[in-house]
Amino acid sequence: MSRDGQAACTSETGVFRWEQALRVVPAAGGSPARLLPTWSRQVTGPTAYIGGGLCRTECSGSRETGAELGMQAPDSTGTKRLGINRSAAVGVALALFLLWWALRDVAFADVAARVRDVRLLSFFGSVALAVLAQLVLRPLRWQHMLRPNGRSLPYMALFHATAAGAMANCLLPARAGEFVRAYAARELTESRFSTAFGSIAVERVMDGLTLVAFLALVLAAGDFGDGGKVGGLTLTGIAAIGAAVFGLALLGSLLVVWKPGAVRWLSAKVVEPLLPGRLATRLSQILEGVIEGFDSLGNVNRTLTVIFWSMVLWGVNALSIWLGLIAFDISVPWTAAIIVQSLLGFAVAIPSSPGFFGPFEAAGKAALALYGVDASRALAFSAPYHLFAFVAPVTLVGLWSLSRTGLRISKLSRSKAEATPPSPPVSVAGAAGSPPQPPGHGWRSRFGPPGGDVPKRRT
What we know:
Blueprint: E1 6-9, E2 18-25, E3 34-42, H1 79-103, H2 108-116, H3 120-145, H4 155-171, H5 177-188, H6 193-221, E4 229-230, E5 233-234, H7 235-258, H8 260-271, H9 277-293, H10 300-327, H11 335-348, H12 359-369, H13 375-405, H14 409-418, H15 444-447
Antiparallel strand pairs: 1-2, 2-3, 4-5
Helix pairs in contact: 1-12, 2-13, 3-4, 3-10, 3-13, 4-5, 4-13, 5-6, 5-14, 6-7, 6-9, 6-10, 6-11, 7-8, 8-9, 10-11, 11-12, 12-13
């Protein structure tokens, strides 16, 4: 047992060199005591202890390590952060180049004139459908994908996690919102970080395959503009590349679902021996969460449900683009909306700048050029649509979600910067580092049953 009224929990393997102590600080006036997290001495061997009468978790019998329990040692070298900054810099540089390419032939006076003449009713309808697709339907589909231990999670918790992640994609580079979304799901539900992140990976594969399927429908119709080439590649070639990339990702996901034992054996015998002990242990824990996150692919009914909602989501989004084109008086066939959507989806899938400024405008210009639309008219559509149908509403809704849930932007952004995917935190009368809460108190009572329990699977 720890001294000085502390409650602490460390790795059972002794690989992680730091322990986090939760110091009990009494409060006056009958208020709950506060738990202040502090970093203490190095751990030299397997230890696990409970103190202060508040810790309600057993570490010695768990496969989770200190990092998986939300206890991350300080990174004094800054190596990880430097690596992340380099990858973000590459993405931002690519985005700046694409933004330059999208703007180089633009007559800004013509763009301003077309924006002034926008049909507001059609444009507002386009914005409403985009918000419906990305913020309402996406968490609805996610409910069928993320079911830890077979349990359905509250819709509003997943809605707020989706909104927080989308907002982070608008404010942070390199698609940091995917990490933020998984972190928010961990905080607002009973899901592990790695499980939530695995389900997001499956979701992105489904998105890619759905976009490829829509693009294939346009190719089958034979109406794909003048020449059908983008950057020297035909639309058929782009669809084939997309099908190959996302198809291989789907096959890999199915392998994880169908043969989890083989994947664990491959990791333990081939990959982990090449890594230091700490990284090997982390890989093993993350792999377990990812396997659970891919679980939706192992159930035929859930897979068909996810496919259905994917088609609905992207169908609504294509209708949003179609109304946006009408709003800016761009006369093109209805198939143009699907081509624009597909190229936009493929472009923003690449980690780049905050808000995907650059790739979004470049993809819109390239897609509409297939139909003879000049750069100025294309920008008059893509820039306002990007700003008002995605960036502005997503950011506002994300900020509202943060205020409703008590999540902080600093913690969300740090979850990406540290790149350490923890699972649910130590249950010490609440969350680690937070004041202990009575059952049913706080945000959990708004998103699920009292005490943080999630409802059982619906039958």
